[in-house]
Amino acid sequence: MCLAIPMKIIAIDGFNARCEAKGVERDVSLFIMQHEAVEIGDFVMVHVGYAIQKMTPQEARSTWELFDQMLGGVDTP
Q1: Which of 44, 33, 36 is nearest to 9 (CA)?
Q2: Most CB within 10 Å of its CB: which of 13, 32, 47, 60?
């Protein structure tokens, strides 16, 4: 199973972006999206360190709500 998570772009340097989700920041490659305009503040789906598509803030929020619901029933050690 593959999983991509929504993240917000907070900085861009060439084909690399610094993205944030739920207080966690990661460096993400924009190479796959090189023909699409992305800007600071945009939301992207991130899979194994690569931004694979843009999404609206509403789509990002809805996705995180679903993840939170799924994880709500998980016991952590």
Answers
A1: 44
A2: 60
Predicted TM-score (pTM) of this structure: 0.86
Contacts of 50 (CB under 8 A, 6+ apart): 28, 29, 31, 32
What token pair was written down for 74?
Answer: 């998980």
* Domains detected in the chain: 5-72 (2.30.30.140)
| Residue with the two structure tokens 């609206």 | 56
pLDDT tens digits along 12-50: 999 999 999 999 999 999 999 999 999 999 999 999 999
